[in-house]
Amino acid sequence: PVLRQFYEQHHQPESNFEVVAVSMDDELASARAYAFEAKLNFPVLFDEGQKVANAYKVEGIPTMLLIAEDGTVVWGKAGFERGFEKELERELGLAKLEKPNDKPSH
User: Fold this and answer.
1) Residue 79 and which of 1, 6, 10, 73 are 20 to 30 A apart at CA?
2) How far, in Å, CA of 96 to CA of 98, rounded?
């Protein structure tokens, strides 16, 4: 749900990034069922034979990668940690700059 919300909040048709889920399921039906149940609102690639996973050296799921237009990995994270969306915002240049007045007072 966190990545789905991230996509809803940040992705626009003119965005310079795309979120793509890569399914490593053995069967297409399983991948489709998961995408439907999870209500994924971004593209899902069925990675038959795990060619994409092998090309990017994915060893476990979830793995998140930022891949530049030339195919090079510019950022990666394996596993899920709370708040990863803030890190993703920073890496994509989407993080809002905090103004001095926005800081909580102590």
Assistant:
1) 10
2) 6
Residue appearing with tokens 């510019």 = 74
Please, which residues have CB within 8 angstroms of residue 106's CB and are 6 or more apart in sequence? Answer: none
DSSP 3-state assignment of 7? helix
Span 38-71, pLDDT tens digits: 999 999 999 999 999 999 999 888 899 999 888 8
Distance CA 78, CA 80 (A): 7
pTM: 0.76
Q: Tokens 């240049």 belong to which residue?
A: 93
Q: Where are the beta strands (DSSP E) in the chain?
A: 21-23, 44-46, 63-67, 73-78
